[in-house]
Amino acid sequence: MTIFRIAAVALSAFLTAPAVVVGSPTRAEAAPYVPCPAVKPPMPPPAAPAPPPVGPGDQAVGGDSLATTGLAIPAGAPMAPAVTATSWLVADLNTGAVLGGCGPHEHRTPASVQKMLLAAALMPRLDPTQIVEVTRADLQDLDPASSLMGVVPGGRYSVESLWLGLLLKSGNDAANVLARVGGGSAGRPGGVQAMNDEAHRLQANQTHAATPSGLDGPGQYTSAYDLALIARATYAREDFRRYIATRVAQIPAEAGTEGFAITHDNTLLDHYPGTLGGKTGFTDLARQTYVGVAERNGRRLAVTLLGAETAPLGSLGEAAALLDWGFALSPDASVGRLVTPGEKKDDHPLVAGKSERQGRNGILSALSLPVVLGLTAAVVLVVLALAARRWRKAVRQSAGRPAGRSGRDRVGSEP
Fold it and tell me: I need a labelling partner for 206 at 20 to 30 A (CA). Which of 17, 179, 197, 373 fits?
C-alpha cells in the first residue's frame, strides 16, 4: 500500500468518525422533581384549560435547577412554606439571585399583574404630564363590575393620574387608555404589541399579552419567573416605585372633569414591614395572583405567585410567608438567577451520539483548533513525501537514458 493510499484511508477514517465536542459540556438534565409544599384549599378551583407546555429551550433559563415543574430550593435550606399557589418564585432584585421557586417557568394566567408589563413597556414612552381625553371606545368592552379607576368618556386626565389609577385601583379603564395612547397610530393593539415586545426584550419567554389590563384573553400567559424579570425592570424606575408605594392619590380636576381621590387596594404596604409595593390580580381563570417587593437589611426581595386561592391565607398571606422564608436564607443562597435584557442565551452544546450523522462542515466545526492544524500538517507532509518520491524516480530514469532523448520521447522499443 503506497503512502498516498495510507494517507487517504487515515483521512477518510478520521472524517467519518463520530464527532465529539472538545471542551464543551453536555446539556444538563432537567432538575430532579420534588413536589411543591401545598395546602389544599377548602373549595377546589373551577376546571381550567391545560396551559401549553414550556419549550425545551426555555425550561432552564436562569439555571438548570429551574428546569422543573416542582420545587427548586437551595441545598440544605429550610423547606419552603406550603401554599395554594400553583407557581411561585422568590428572587433578590439587587443581585438577581433566584432563592427558590415552584414550577418557575410554567405557563399560568396572569390576571391584573399583567398591568406591570404595561408599565414596563409604556412608562419609558409616555410623558407623565401629557393630558389625555378618554373615548367611549376605551370603556365599551369593560364590565362595570370589574376593577376601575373611574374615568369617564370625554374626561381629561394626565398620564401620571392614569398610572396611579392603574396601579392603586387596578383600573382596567386606565389600562385601555394608556395602551391606546402608548400604541400611537396602531391604538390599543399597538400598546399590547409594545407589551409583547418588552416581554421579548426582557427574555420573559413564557409571557404573552392579549389584553392591556390582564383581563383574560386568548393565549394570554406568563410565569412566576417572567414576573420576577418584569418586577426587576419596573422597580428599577423611580417613578414606578413612587406610584406603587402611594397610599392615597388625588386625581385633579381638568376642564369638564371632576377631581376625585383613589386609595391603594389590597397590598402589604401597611401589613408587612419593609413592603415597597405590590400588585394583586384575580379572574375566575387565573385565581389570585400577586407580585410584591419588600426590603430588609439592604436586601430587596421580590415574590411572585400565580394560581392562589382565597383560603386559608390568600395571595397576600402566602406572599408574606414566602418573603419570610426568603429573608431567612443566607444572602448567598440561590438556585438560579434572573437573566438580563440582551444577554445571550447559553446554547448548552451537545456531545454527538454514535448514531448522529454530520456533514464535513459540522464535524470540522466541532474540532478544536489544534486538531485541525495537526490534520492539515499531516496531509501536507504526505503530499510532500509523495512529490519527493516521484522526483527521485524521474531522476533515476533520466540518468539511464541516451543523451538528447527525453522520457516522453520514449515510445515503443529503442532503435
Answer: 179
* 170 noted as active-site residue: yes
> Is the backbone of residue 149 left (phi > 0), alpha (psi -120 to 50) or beta?
alpha
> Any catalytic annotation for residue 115?
yes
**Active-site entry in 112, 147, 213, 223:** 112
Cell of 397: 530514469
Q: What is the pLDDT of residue 412?
A: 33
* Residue ranges in the chain whose pLDDT is less than 70: 1-31, 345-415
Q: What is the DSSP letter of 184?
A: G
What are the pLDDT digits (tens) for 147-185?
Answer: 999 999 999 999 999 999 999 999 999 999 999 999 999
Could you tell me the sign of the dihedral formed by the alpha carbons of 380, 382, 383, 389, in that order? positive
- Burial label, 128 (beta-carbon count in 10 A; 0-12, 13-18, 19+): middle
d(CA 70, CA 59): 12
Grid coordinates of 354:
454514535
pLDDT at 38: 97
Angle of CA points 15, 17, 21, to nearest 5°: 95
Report the distance separating Cα 323 and Cα 303, nearest Å: 7
Catalytic residue list contains 112: yes
Q: How far apart, in whole angstroms, are the C-alpha atoms of residue 129 and residue 146?
A: 27
Say how far apart CA 278 and CA 269 lie, in whole Å.
8
pLDDT of residue 258: 87
Residue from 170, 213, 223, 315 carrying the catalytic annotation: 170
8-13 contacts, C-beta under 8 A, 24 or more apart: 10/378, 11/375, 11/379
Contact 283, 216 (CB under 8 A): yes
Q: In the prediction, which pLDDT does 7 show?
A: 44
Dihedral, CA of residue 236, residue 238, residue 243 and residue 244, to nearest 10: 30
257/88 Cα distance (integer angstroms): 41
92 contact partners, CB below 8 Å, separation of at least 6: 99, 299, 300, 301, 302, 331, 334
Catalytic residue of the set 87, 115, 147, 169: 115
**Looking at residue 14, what is its pLDDT?**
38
Q: What digits encode the pLDDT tens for the residues 50-85?
A: 999 999 889 999 999 999 999 999 999 999 999 999
